[in-house]
Amino acid sequence: MQYVIYGKVIKGDSYGRKIGFPTVNLDSKTKKLPRAGVYSGEAMLDGKKYRAGIIIGPGEKIEAHLIGYSGDAYGKNVTLEINKFLREYKKFNTEEELIIQIKKDLELC
Prior knowledge:
The protein is an alpha+beta fold. It has a single domain, classed as Riboflavin kinase-like (Elongation Factor Tu (Ef-tu), domain 3), CATH 2.40.30. It has helices spanning 15-18, 95-108; strands spanning 3-10, 24-28, 37-45, 48-56, 62-66, 77-88.
């Protein structure tokens, strides 16, 4: 099943930016979300489509790394299309392990 999530970009904790993978964090009213995990998909922002690594985290936290996007998206509306489940959501023991996994995830996107 394909999911479409629509929301406004809000301020997150900037951790993705700190480790080299900035994300947009969404405040979404979308009722039906997929299970927590990491997905590949596409994002539509400012009329342009980007490939995206999408994370549905605990507490229905939604964020996405838009491949090739480097602007300021705060306050803008984004539509995410989830295409494929990549892996379960998990916490990593070290930042280095997380970075290695993110690189692998984005290669699949």
